[in-house]
Known about the structure:
53% helix; alpha+beta; five-stranded mixed sheet; three-stranded antiparallel sheet; elongated
Amino acid sequence: MKNIFNFPQHYKNVKAFHSKYERFLMPTFLVAGFVFDYIVFANIEISLNFIFLMVYWIVAGVAIVVTTLYDSGKIKFGAKYIRLVAFLVIQFSFGGLLRGSLLFYWFSGALSISWPLIVVIALLMLFYDVFREFFLKPVVQLSLYFFITFSFFVLALPFFFNSISVWLFVVAGALSLAVFFPYILLLFYFGHAGREKQRRIFTSIIIIFFIINTLYFFNIIPPIPLSIREAEAFHSLKVSGGKYIMQGELETFWQNLIPGQTLHLQTGERVYLYTAIFAPATLNTTIVNRWQYFNETTKKWLTMSNASFDIAGGRQQGYKGYSWFLNPAPGRWRVFVQTPRGQVLGKVNLNIVHASTLVEMGEFVR
C-alpha cells in the first residue's frame, strides 16, 4: 500500500512546485494584496484599517521569528514548510503595511509636499518585489521591519488619541524603539548573530530613525489622521441650513483634468476657498489657509494672508470651512491648507485673471 504520509516526498513536491512557479507567485501575491488592501481601505471604517495593519505587522514579526529559529536549528518539526513559503508570507505582510501606509499618506497630504515620503514607500514596494532575495537578508529585512514599525505607530497614535500633537510623534518613535530593540535582541540570542551583523542592524535602525524624524520636523510627513476631502475656489459663498452654497465658473471635463483653477474676477471681487477636511471623532484642531502670490519681478512667492478656522472631527465627508481674499492681483496664486505647525494637507493653485464682464457661473451646493 502506498504511504500517503510520505512527508519527505511531499515536501520535495511542494518545493519543486514552488521553484517552478516562483516567478508567477510573487507578482500574484503582490497584485492580490494590493487589490485586497485597496478594497478594504476604501470600504470599511478607518479604525478597522488599523486592525488590518496591526495583523500584517504581527504576522510579519512572527514569520521573521520562525525563519530565524529554523535557520538556527532551534525548531524543526513542520517548520520547513513554513520556511519554504515564509518569504511569501513576509512579502505579503510587508507589502500590505507599505500599501496601507502609502494610501494613508497619499490621502492625508498634498502630493507636492509629501511626495518624498510617498516615493520612498512606493520604491520600497517596487524593489521589494524586484529584488526579493536581497530583501530576505536579515539586515535588510529587519531594517525594513523597523521602518514599517515606526510608520505604523506614527499612523496609529494620532488616530487613537485624537490628536496631531508633536509629542505623539515623539512617543511613536520612542515606542517603536522600545518594542523593536527587545525583539531583535531575542533574535540575536536565538539566531546566534555575530557582532558584525548586530552592528550593521543597529546602525541601520539608528539611520532610519533619524531620517523619519527629519522628514517629520521638516513637515514632509503629512498630519495623519487629517485628510483633505475637497478644496476648490469660488466667486461667492454663503452658508444656509448647514449647507454651503457657492457660485463658481463652469468648466468642461477636460478643464477639470488640468491641475489648478483659472478665475476671472472683476475689480474689488473676493475669491473664496472652500475646503472639506476629514478628522476622526473628538479631534478638534485649527486649519490655516496660507494665501501666496507669485511676484514675477522677484520670482518669489509672497505670503499675503494666513486665515484660520477651527474644525471638529467625526464627519466622514469632511468638516467644511472656508477663507477668502479680497481683490487679489492678477497672476499666479496658491493656497496651502495646513496645520498651525505647517504640515500641509493640500494645495490649490490659482490663476487670477481680471475681467471687465461677468463670466458664465454655476451654483454648487456642498
